[in-house]
């Protein structure tokens, strides 16, 4: 089924700048340890835009973050939307392209096999002489510049169109949060892909609209993260996930001085937040949002369990979730998260997700808490508890678990869980695996969990 873009009008300028700081000399990105200024960046954007076909949308498959920035802006300047599938797996890309008839795909690598209509970016040689367009580019405020897709962790990925005005609004909240902790200026290194909405906000919009430079790579291993941080100037902000944070803490590697760390995409254990702050000597902020809403709250989990809302964000608790109002939203969005408000509604505490709440024989539990207790067992390196689709004669759905725990067996884990939770909520089956099927941001797509659970030994 084709996606219909639902754009909207705001009480705002009809056009908004592509780059938030009008300064041709300011740094947009760092490539191979060298800064790329706005003049060269815009020249490359215009050059790529001139090569793009006429269409309504393009799947942006660039892995290099600088190439993604160039492609993102070129696509937007052509009046097209960047399609951001939940992964670059061929099936996920094909499904997104099928929902947008007439679109094409764009990337910096030679792909084989390649999506239909695939186009490869020309080399983005920072040393080549280019002349920038003297006009500072702008985009219609109500233009849909991106369509993000949810990760599928709770089911089938769904589309979330974003206008340029909504991105400007969401970026303002993130800027205010980061200025308060990292200062007026900083450079960004991110371990998350730009196609994910968290990566989009913190490693694409921040450099475009906030005036900060971003490292072009997506470092994965701890040594790569340290090297990337060393290639950008201080002060530095590290945008990452709990999975990468745990690897950094446990590696023992030294990082260059950083002003702040950001985490999202999965719940961040307090113990890990405290360990990261001790190891790297910087505050660690966790941000709260979704593909549908973008970020609208933050907290410092090492010292505070409650979340603080961004200016203009309002929460309305509902029986089955929470309705969110925010400056970047044309209409309220209801999330499955259950919250309790405090301090005149400006702070909140998570109580679970409606879809995660379990009730068996009059007793209640949440999948999130069960997963937390599984992870707390000594020897369990990774794990998740989830509910199966099939119910028994009374409509009760079984609970299952996957765990990475070398040296343990299922009986030892179940015995430890039995001491921590009500036996009604013991996961059966519980299966030991070599690794959980986490995606690029550390999330666990439900389909992948079910496939792994059903895979024969």
Automatic annotation (TrEMBL):
SUPFAM superfamilies per record: Acetyl-CoA synthetase-like
Coiled-coil boundaries: none
Keyword vocabulary terms for this entry: Ligase
GO MF annotations in UniProt: ligase activity
Pfam families: AMP-binding
Stretches assigned to the AMP-dependent synthetase/ligase domain: 126-308
Family matches, as InterPro entries: AMP-bd_C_sf, AMP-dep_synth/lig_dom, ANL_N_sf, ATP-dep_AMP-bd_enzyme
Family matches, as PANTHER family: LONG-CHAIN-FATTY-ACID--COA LIGASE (PTHR43767:SF8)
Protein's recorded name: AMP-ligase
Organism the protein comes from: Rhodanobacter denitrificans
């Amino acid at each position: 089924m084709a996606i219909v873009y639902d754009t909207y009008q705001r009480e705002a300028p009809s056009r908004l700048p592509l780059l938030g700081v009008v300064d041709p000399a300011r740094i947009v990105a760092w490539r191979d340890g060298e800064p790329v200024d706005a003049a060269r960046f815009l020249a490359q954007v215009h050059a790529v835009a001139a090569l793009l076909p006429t269409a309504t949308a393009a799947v942006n498959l660039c892995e290099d973050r600088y190439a993604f920035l160039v492609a993102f802006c070129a696509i937007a300047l052509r009046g097209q939307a960047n399609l951001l599938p939940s992964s670059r797996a061929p099936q996920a890309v094909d499904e997104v392209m099928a929902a947008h008839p007439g679109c094409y795909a764009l990337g910096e690598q030679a792909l084989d096999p390649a999506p239909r209509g695939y186009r490869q970016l020309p080399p983005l040689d920072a040393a080549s002489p280019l002349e920038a367009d003297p006009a500072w580019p702008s985009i219609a405020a109500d233009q849909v510049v991106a369509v993000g897709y949810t990760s599928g962790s709770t089911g089938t990925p769904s589309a979330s169109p974003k206008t340029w005005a909504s991105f400007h609004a969401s970026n303002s909240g993130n800027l205010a949060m980061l200025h308060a902790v990292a200062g007026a200026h900083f450079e960004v290194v991110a371990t998350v892909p730009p196609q994910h909405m968290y990566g989009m906000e913190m490693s694409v919009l921040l450099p475009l609209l906030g005036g900060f430079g971003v490292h072009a790579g997506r470092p994965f291993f701890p040594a790569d993260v340290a090297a990337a941080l060393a290639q950008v100037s201080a002060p530095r902000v590290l945008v990452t996930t709990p999975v990468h944070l745990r690897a950094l803490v446990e590696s023992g590697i030294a990082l260059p001085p950083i002003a702040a760390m950001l985490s999202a995409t999965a719940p961040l254990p307090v113990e890990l937040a405290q360990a990261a702050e001790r190891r790297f000597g910087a505050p660690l902020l966790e941000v709260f949002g979704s593909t549908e809403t973008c970020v609208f709250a933050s907290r410092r989990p090492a010292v505070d369990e409650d979340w603080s809302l961004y200016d203009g964000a309002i929460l309305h608790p509902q029986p089955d979730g929470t309705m969110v109002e925010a400056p970047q939203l044309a209409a309220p969005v209801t999330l499955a998260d259950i919250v309790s408000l405090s301090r005149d509604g400006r702070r909140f505490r998570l109580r679970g997700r409606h879809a995660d709440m379990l009730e068996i024989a009059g007793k209640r539990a949440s999948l999130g808490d069960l997963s937390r207790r599984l992870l707390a067992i000594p020897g369990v390196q990774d794990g998740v508890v989830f509910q199966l689709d099939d119910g028994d004669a009374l409509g009760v759905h079984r609970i299952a678990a996957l765990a990475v725990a070398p040296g343990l067996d299922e009986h030892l884990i179940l015995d430890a869980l039995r001491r921590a939770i009500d036996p009604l909520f013991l996961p059966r089956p519980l299966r030991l695996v070599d690794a959980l099927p986490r995606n690029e941001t550390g999330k666990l797509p439900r389909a992948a969990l079910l496939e792994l659970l059903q895979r024969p030994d």
